Structure formats: structure tokens, C-alpha cells
């Protein structure tokens, strides 16, 4: 009996102490482990993104010394930035500046370690309409290890109606993958404004015509679309079929 009373008293005392430690008369906590603002020198990814966006807000479309300085500030962040989301934000911000170094940095981003960053750089290159991007996009379309990045590069090439861009689409149209061929067809439609249906061989002939400067076999006089004399082929070395 005495033992039970002793345990009861101890329990009540503990509860009283706990209540006294947790609450002040005003109802608030009696102690605050982080009572003041947290002070840290660590720059979180969120903080770094905010800094980048602040710099990007300075873009005014000129190539003035001030704009060049802002671009240089952004570019120097790229080599040592471990977070791909922050690197992507830096590149998106650089694309807003009309400074040669900014365009060069975006093209360099096509070789980033992260495939999402490379994909985004394909889009940025397409939006910039920089003719110097064609060679880099052609390399990505042919060599990138990620299929979606290759497709993004092909889509970007569709925005350049030049012989160099159409030359880059020839191996795309000759690719064995129907999905890649389809991307090439869409890019050719965008480049030329011509709808030849889903006939891959017709677009391939059109691309070669632009590169060689000569009409493809079977072409009608005056540059009219070629007249097919035999079933079209998706790729010259493959049997006739139409994946689209």
C-alpha cells in the first residue's frame, strides 16, 4: 500500500514538473532551442536559385559591360555547382541575356552530366535561333546516350531551315528506330513547311536535295515533289513500310 502511494506521488510530481517546464503563464513554451533566427553560412540550393534569378532580372537585351558582368557572374557558378536543378536555372537565366558568352554557355550545357539539363539546353538553343547551335545539336542528335535528349535535339533542329540543319537530319531519317524517324519527319515539316505525309523516304530525299542542291531521283521539273516510281522505303536499305 505504501509502495503504491509512493509511486502515485512520484508520478504526480513528474507530471507537475513536465507541465511547469513546458508552459509559461502566458501559454507559450518555456524554452526555445532555436529562439533566434538560424544563422548559417551554408547556401542551400533554394538560396542559390534565388540569387541566380535576381541576376537574371537584370537582363535588358543589350551587350553592355553591365550585362557582360552579370553573365560572367552566372557562368562562373556552373563548374562547381553540384545540383543539376540549380545548373538548369543558371542556364535558363543565361538564355535571357543577349551576350555572346551566354549563348556559348548554353551550348556548352549540351554536354552537361545530367540529361535533364542537356534536354533543357536543346530547348534553349531552339528558342535562341543561334545558327552556331546547329553543329552542337547535330552532335547531340547523333551521339547522346539518352533517347529523349536526342529527340529534343532533333526537335530543336526543326527550327533551323538551313542546309546544315537538314544535313543533320539525314542520319535521323535513316535511323532504324521508327520513333527517331518520326522525330526527323516532324523536324523536316517544321523546317520546310511541306507536308509529305508519313513517307520517310520522301523527306529523306528532300533533305538530300537541299544539301546536294540537286533534285532527287524522280523529281518533276520546277522543283515539284518527286513522283514515286516504286514503293517508298523508310530507309534505302530496308523493305518498304510506313511506320506513320
TrEMBL record:
Short name of one Pfam family: HEAT_2
Source species, domain of life: Bacteria
SUPFAM superfamilies, per the entry: ARM repeat
Keywords: Signal
Signal sequence range: 1-18
Residue segments, region Disordered: 214-244
Biased composition (Low complexity): 225-236
UniProt keyword annotation of Metal-binding present: no
GO function term, MF aspect, one: oxidoreductase activity
Protein name, as recorded: HEAT repeat protein
Classification of source organism: Bacteria, Pseudomonadati, Planctomycetota, Planctomycetia, Pirellulales
Amino acid at each position: 500500500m505504501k509502495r503504491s502511494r509512493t509511486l502515485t506521488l512520484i508520478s504526480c510530481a513528474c507530471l507537475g514538473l513536465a507541465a511547469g517546464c513546458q508552459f509559461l503563464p502566458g501559454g507559450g513554451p518555456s524554452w526555445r532551442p532555436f529562439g533566434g533566427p538560424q544563422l548559417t553560412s551554408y547556401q542551400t540550393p533554394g538560396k542559390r536559385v534565388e540569387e541566380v534569378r535576381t541576376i537574371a532580372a537584370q537582363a535588358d537585351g543589350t551587350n553592355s559591360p553591365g550585362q557582360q558582368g552579370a553573365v560572367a557572374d552566372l557562368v562562373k557558378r556552373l563548374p562547381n555547382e553540384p545540383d543539376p536543378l540549380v545548373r538548369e536555372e543558371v542556364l535558363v537565366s543565361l538564355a535571357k541575356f543577349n551576350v555572346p558568352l551566354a549563348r556559348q554557355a548554353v551550348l556548352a550545357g549540351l554536354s552537361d552530366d545530367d540529361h535533364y539539363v542537356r534536354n533543357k539546353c536543346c530547348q534553349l538553343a531552339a528558342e535562341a535561333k543561334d545558327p552556331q547551335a546547329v553543329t552542337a545539336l547535330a552532335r547531340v542528335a547523333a551521339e547522346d546516350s539518352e533517347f529523349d535528349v536526342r529527340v529534343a535535339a532533333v526537335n530543336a533542329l526543326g527550327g533551323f531551315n538551313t542546309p546544315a540543319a537538314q544535313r543533320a537530319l539525314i542520319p535521323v531519317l535513316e535511323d532504324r528506330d521508327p520513333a527517331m524517324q518520326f522525330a526527323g519527319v516532324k523536324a523536316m515539316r517544321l523546317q520546310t513547311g511541306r507536308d509529305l505525309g508519313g513517307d520517310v523516304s520522301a523527306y529523306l530525299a528532300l533533305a538530300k536535295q537541299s544539301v546536294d542542291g540537286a533534285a532527287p531521283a524522280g523529281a518533276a521539273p520546277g522543283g515539284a515533289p518527286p513522283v514515286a516510281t516504286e514503293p517508298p522505303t523508310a530507309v534505302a536499305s530496308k523493305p518498304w513500310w510506313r511506320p506513320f
